[in-house]
């Protein structure tokens, strides 16, 4: 009875913003946390870009760089959590921006977020392919190439599309399992390296050793470039907000999901990176390897055991990609039901059988594959390029996502200064008197890392982002003015219309 009462209360909060309860509200607090924790996935970002961090920042990147980024991201997560608590809709970032600013702010925020979402899904599943393909090549006797990696990447995306299409219940259960699985694999990795590293561990101060870089950049600049490793890892935690209409008591649970997913990822990620880095015997050889993480684990643990650990890590990446498709498709669904995208009626369509935004799920898959395919074709034209596909994909996602994170935070500060957003508008999860200083520091860090992530050698990410923004400006004049009424348009929905829409899905 208490659960039914909470569900009714959650539906009322959603109806206040003009939306019917169409998605199945079945996720608990742990499931909401698990989807963000799985997308952050310390076994994806920190692992797949381990070589990038080591090459530019040396071992000190793992001790100092990781901690520095995590502390600032915790402030950003807290800023976003209080917005999720105040405005609990699946549109999340874009809806917050539209409510606190206007529909134009909302429209641009949504598209910038979509750019970041394409990058993060592509980056996660490409990371999985980078690990899976060499392991499969060794098992089946073929040679791993860019083409075979792209093929494996496509198969991984296809599987994620199928699972997400089938239903939120199975994905939620897999996300729950994924959270525990990540913790278990980190524990296995830490214990294995602590007790079975062939030549013993380095002294603890090695983890904080600065001044060593294996790049051609001055160390201070190289260290900043290396921060991409940690910064990309801490992305995607807005998933807790995108699944807010599927979460029970979301004004509290989704807010905690955003913040706690970052906090737990910081702690477990630090432990993992510490032991991996302390097991390095030759940092230069690791940095020069085609996959630094595989090199370190193979050297430290060797043989069958090392390969088994790498397969465990690869499966964690697979779970991460599964969650990211869930988040991306929900954001696209929420934006499309407000007619924010061309052919919106399709992307806002809910499968009556599975209660999932099926067409939005498959569009997420197609767009993510297209971004990696674009980079693959560029490399065919210019095979001598020095940047990696993964650095390209991850930089696009970091800048796109964090700019989208920053816009509603800035608009909230502006609304507060104008006396529009008042204490009474806050949700039950809020920062109180600490809200303003935490919001300001968050914005400073977002501006800083958005510049750092696209400086050479990753300037191709800047070119891709500029191209996307130019396309966005063209769409502004070609689509926005004639079609997008904003989420405020939903407020015109009558109570009778809401009940009718909800009855259609409950039938």
Automatic annotation (TrEMBL):
Location(s), subcellular: Membrane
InterPro entries the UniProt entry points to: AA/rel_permease1 (IPR002293)
Keyword Transport recorded: yes
Protein name: Amino acid permease
Its membrane topology: Multi-pass membrane protein
Keywords for this protein: Membrane, Transmembrane, Transmembrane helix, Transport
Pfam family of the protein (one): AA_permease_2
Organism: Effusibacillus consociatus
Transmembrane segments: 33-51, 63-87, 107-136, 148-167, 179-197, 218-234, 254-276, 308-329, 360-378, 390-413, 434-455, 461-480
